């Protein structure tokens, strides 16, 4: 019986020596530079904190306040860049360029319609209409409005038909017709006349 126990111990020992039961040492190419930087930074911060009245508590409190102020600054900058008032990139524009106004978009839509570029005309006319609604303070954030939310907000049968045509052409990839252009143009006239 002791022979069986000894064989079992040896088998267990062999199994536990297999690679799968040991940690794999991964390469850490930045380990030494980061340790060096951590030592220097820790030593520097330790000397600064020691000189502060109040010692460690005040030092760490100031460091935490500095980190929070930096995070608030970065967060505010990001929020301002992405907020509703931020300039948007669109239509091949560049950051800082003035966005197109509704009147110029409507002129472009008319020209596109005359040139037979009906899908482009629909898109431009919708952008112009949304900008007009934003100018009249009907919309808070024109950049994030959807056709469905416009249908709910405007409650117009003409606009609901125009929105359906727009969605079928732009998102459903249906070939636009002259009727689509007319329906959208007329619906925006009705909506904006109110």
Note down, in words, how this protein is organized.
The chain is mainly alpha-helical and 194 residues long. It folds into two domains: 34-80, no CATH class; 102-193, no CATH class. The chain is built from eight helices and no strands. Helix 7 (157-170) packs across helix 8 (178-193). The radius of gyration is 33 Å and the shape is elongated.
Question: In whole angstroms, how far apart are the ends?
Answer: 99 Å
Shape: elongated
SSE succession: HHHHHHHH
Cα gyration radius (Å)? 33 Å
The average pLDDT score comes to 84
Given as residue ranges, the uncertain stretches (5+ residues, pLDDT < 50) are 84-94
Q: Quick one: biggest sheet?
A: none
- Which band does the percent of strand residues land in? under 5%
**How many distinct domains?**
2
Question: Which structural class fits the helix and strand makeup?
Answer: mainly alpha
Secondary structure: helix percent: 55-70%
DSSP, total strands: 0
Number of distinct helices: 8
């Amino acid at each position: 019986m002791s022979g069986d126990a000894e064989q079992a111990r040896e088998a267990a020992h062999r199994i536990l020596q297999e690679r799968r039961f040991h940690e794999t040492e991964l390469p850490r190419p930045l380990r030494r530079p980061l340790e060096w930087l951590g030592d220097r930074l820790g030593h520097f911060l330790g000397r600064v904190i020691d000189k502060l009245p109040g010692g460690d508590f005040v030092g760490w409190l100031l460091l935490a306040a500095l980190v929070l102020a930096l995070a608030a600054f970065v967060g505010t900058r990001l929020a301002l860049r992405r907020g509703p008032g931020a300039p948007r990139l669109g239509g091949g524009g560049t950051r800082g360029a003035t966005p197109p106004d509704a009147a110029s978009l409507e002129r472009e839509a008319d020209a596109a319609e005359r040139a037979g570029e009906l899908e482009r005309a629909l898109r431009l006319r919708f952008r112009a209409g949304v900008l007009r609604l934003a100018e009249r303070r009907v919309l808070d954030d024109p950049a994030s409005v959807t056709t469905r939310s416009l249908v709910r907000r405007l409650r117009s049968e003409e606009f609901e038909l125009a929105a359906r045509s727009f969605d079928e052409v732009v998102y459903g990839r249906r070939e636009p017709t002259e009727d689509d252009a007319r329906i959208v143009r007329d619906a925006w006239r009705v909506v904006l006349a109110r």
